[in-house]
UniProtKB/TrEMBL annotation, chains A, B:
In the C-terminal section; belongs to the class-I pyridoxal-phosphate-dependent aminotransferase family. It comes from Pseudodesulfovibrio piezophilus (strain DSM 21447 / JCM 15486 / C1TLV30). SUPFAM superfamilies: PLP-dependent transferases, Winged helix' DNA-binding domain. GO terms for biological process: alpha-amino acid metabolic process. The keyword Iron-sulfur does not apply. PROSITE patterns: HTH_GNTR. Keywords: Aminotransferase, DNA-binding, Pyridoxal phosphate, Transcription, Transcription regulation, Transferase. The keyword Transferase applies. SMART domains: HTH_GNTR. Residues 5-73 form the HTH gntR-type domain. Transmembrane segments: none annotated. InterPro entries: Aminotransferase_I/II_large (IPR004839), Class-I_PLP-dep_aminotransf (IPR050859), PyrdxlP-dep_Trfase (IPR015424), PyrdxlP-dep_Trfase_major (IPR015421), PyrdxlP-dep_Trfase_small (IPR015422), Tscrpt_reg_HTH_GntR (IPR000524), WH-like_DNA-bd_sf (IPR036388), WH_DNA-bd_sf (IPR036390). This is HTH-type transcriptional regulator NorG.
Amino acid sequence: MGQEPYRYQTVEKHILAMMEQGALALGDRLPSLRKMSSNLGVSLSTVNQAYVELERKGVVEARPRSGFFICRHSMRLPRTEISPSSMDSPRPVTRIGLIQTVLEAVGRDDTVPLGVNAPDPSLLPLAELSRITTTVVRENPKRALQYTPIPGDPELVHQIAFRSMEHGIPVAPDDPIITTGCMEALNFALRSVCRPGDTVLIQSPTYYCFLQLLETLGLRAIEVPSDPENGVSPDDLHHVLTTFDIAACILSPNFNNPDSSLTPDRAKREIVSMLAQRHIPLVEDDVSTDLHFTQKRPDTYKQYDKEGLVLLCSSFSKTLAPGYRVGWLLPGRFRQKVLEIKATTNVSTSAPSQIAIAEYLRQGRMTRHLKRLRSAMEKQMDTMQLHLERHFPSGTRVTHPSGGGVLWLELPHCIDSVELFFQARAHSIGIAPGAIFSTQDKFSNYIRLSCGSPWSEQLDNGVRTLGTMAHALTE
Amino acid sequence: MGQEPYRYQTVEKHILAMMEQGALALGDRLPSLRKMSSNLGVSLSTVNQAYVELERKGVVEARPRSGFFICRHSMRLPRTEISPSSMDSPRPVTRIGLIQTVLEAVGRDDTVPLGVNAPDPSLLPLAELSRITTTVVRENPKRALQYTPIPGDPELVHQIAFRSMEHGIPVAPDDPIITTGCMEALNFALRSVCRPGDTVLIQSPTYYCFLQLLETLGLRAIEVPSDPENGVSPDDLHHVLTTFDIAACILSPNFNNPDSSLTPDRAKREIVSMLAQRHIPLVEDDVSTDLHFTQKRPDTYKQYDKEGLVLLCSSFSKTLAPGYRVGWLLPGRFRQKVLEIKATTNVSTSAPSQIAIAEYLRQGRMTRHLKRLRSAMEKQMDTMQLHLERHFPSGTRVTHPSGGGVLWLELPHCIDSVELFFQARAHSIGIAPGAIFSTQDKFSNYIRLSCGSPWSEQLDNGVRTLGTMAHALTE
């Protein structure tokens, strides 16, 4: 990986944007290296790297002594647009059977990894973290073997507090509570603020594990639309709050799983203030924000929280070490309740995992690793989009996320994505069918594809096979 | 540690039993080495080791050319007897505040460790497990970094199944579900079989975390007496089952925390059959059984389970690696429900912890380690009893457990053990006050002391100070 992982990608994006806007069409010649270099103020070699990359992706072809020419019709599938859904009444959640089937792929090596949202091990600092783990366990066998305090290993707690502060989140050094992954943070948060039978406001579509969590806890869900381009609208939220008795909300500020929507910072501020007026807790799933492709890290809801009503949940599972099972919770005013729940769930989180990640953070390795990971994820998502366009039936639309790790595909209406899921599974291809992301039936022709792995022959074959299946289902 | 860790202790116990029965009194001369050796059929050096050990403990003194003489009045405090309590109606659980205060000592180094029930690190195979951990993480960085399947790392699942089979538990190789400690197993088990508002039958006294767990889950408790000598009586259980609507039971088969009671195997069989007739699930806390001081491992309830109604919960926290947070659940017929709950709590358990313990078991190291640990725990408990007798006010009674790691003390009636707890805490001495082990008030003059640490000056001072405080509270 070069010194400037972003620069050539900027050039690439520029070309792709020109194509989308129609400024470059099939058969057109790309501007010369020299011209592009001077237009964009980057080096010749950077432009060259971008052109070669586009050639590798099959977007352009090099013709001897003539330059690079566009050889593909369109760049990407059109953006998906979700029609504003009727905000139905609260309903019990009953997707657990299908979700369970989808989850069976977790931790399996024999499946094309388009179903599970996790970074491929090759993108993680395996050797570095493994070396740090062995060192801290060897040097502190006693610390590794003993219970950590219930809130977590103090060094890790502090490291997470410092990182949160850097992100503009108002937090004291001892505020974070360590959890066994983000899912556990969400579980504790929700159990701290809800009682069985309560109604919880969620985005639609939403991460299926939230639905499963609500079902397990005997909670009811009311859905507000999540628009891939504009996230959650304060107006929609206001409508629900004034119509129903809401005990809590679960919202993803950025790169909502599955539609990768990002709620604008202004809307976040408005939502936090609207909820504060009504004393309604907001459980924030911040697990994807670190995977932003934008220059600036988008804000979290927690940044606008003056009342301690936002419970921010996050983890290292999408960025550093899924198997270590280390997440955290900034519990706001619900600290005591969260600690009670943690004490009766598993008391404390694995000590070797905690002290290894604390040391990784202490050595300042996270920032550089994240920069590389983001760059890789963006590239993978880009490549995936190009291949989808090639193989999927016309009428397919897809999100164009500015971060995260998943794409959300709207297939032609006649396709039942649960059927596609089972067909794919029979070919050892994992995908997530739209039905599991809502209590309603409006996503029956959607699928979510993970972009967590570098492009490979396995992925290439997987996407091609999926496309063939999708074509067949339109007939 | 010698080749035969048990033999000299058998001799010691024999002497102590003679003292308890009055066959040896203050000032009496111990039988000669030769006589004792021939009586008990052990070597001279074994008898000598036992006598020297008793001298070290201050029970006997050696007089030159005369032999060993009893120099202490009585050996141990008398056994505690709990009067059969009225089996009250089910009641909500509300101890969580006090329990929280007691739990604050978890993971703290600055407190005399009489409060938390965990083995001292010096009794754990720190170096061995640390070496295995570093090796498996170094050799399998990818396996350590990735999610394991939801039920757990397959190798660990199999190892636990094999150990269970060795203990006579009917289990298939894939049955165990790995959890983040035993507490999590209990949490999942209880959530699988109960709904908020349900009534759960518990032993009285019971482990305070169970009360906290019931409170957190909105469950009600009905208590049946746990007798230190005879555990739970099938008759008492029958009475409760025919009087109240019971959704589930939590029972500890052996060395119930805090009274270390062991329910006889015959009673276990009867209880399992009684519950099966009524289709009532039994959540079994088996975390202490491996710490038996008896030759034979006492049975578990699960061994008598024909209907899949027993959910056995256990962990390595009291025997191998508290901080690794690895436990398991044999879920019987509730497997699917448990997996659903696990998927919405934290998906999977820390991979480095799991694969390290799997390898430790695979190498066959556990059996030898447990043998040493049991021997050490028994010795520590013995020593603790002798010191209690020396320092605590008359009227104090104590359990004489045949396993586990805690002693349960009945203090003179006028002592409020919550008061003693706060006084001790002010001197950085951790103890567990009786009140937190029941929803009723009958244990207000009881305390639980942990025997997890080898005898030391710190413990000596701690027990002496505690005794002084207890004396003062009787005035």
